Amino acid sequence: MAEQAKDEKSPQQGKFYLRYYVGHHGKFGHEFLEFEFLEDGLLRYANNSRYKGHDLLKKSVYVTDAVLDELKRMIDDSEVLNEDDKLWPEPDEVGRQEIEILHNGHHISFVTTKIGSIIDIEGQEDAGGLKCFYYLVQDLKCLVFSLISLHFKVNFHSFTKSNCCGTHKKQFDIA
Fold first, then answer.
1. Could you tell me the CATH number of the domain that includes residue 94?
2. Which pLDDT score is estimated for 7?
3. Burial status of residue 52 (CB atoms within 10 A of its CB: 0-12, 13-18, 19 or more)
4. Which InterPro entries match (predicted)?
């Protein structure tokens, strides 16, 4: 359920954290996608798809301040921090989604059922709030999939002094 707090003098004012989880228990067991961004730029990613015997995939990478700033802009533009999940559907056999954000003195923690498409939102009591949540989640997943995919396709160990100054390598080292 919704947990919201805002206090302009709070020590949380400058803190940042984002965590997203979506998952379900099905014929292949517990399948889920989860990622989190920490204030220091660490992105942790986990994807557990038991389909065809795949195992848990875990990746960690540091992102730059520019990426964190873009992430914060996405959150601000979405206006999800102004929402409340009390009228959202509860998690069910379809699955569960969770998002937790600490940003600009706000702390939200929302839980709802798995939303497969925008059509799943039609007819809901708080369709506007769910749309806000849905579109933010789509943007976040797109960003995370791009970051993980691009990072692990680039081999920073192949850079030499002639083609890399070395300052960028530290920003992207695997944790």
1. 3.30.1560.10
2. 41
3. exposed
4. Mago_nashi, Mago_nashi_sf
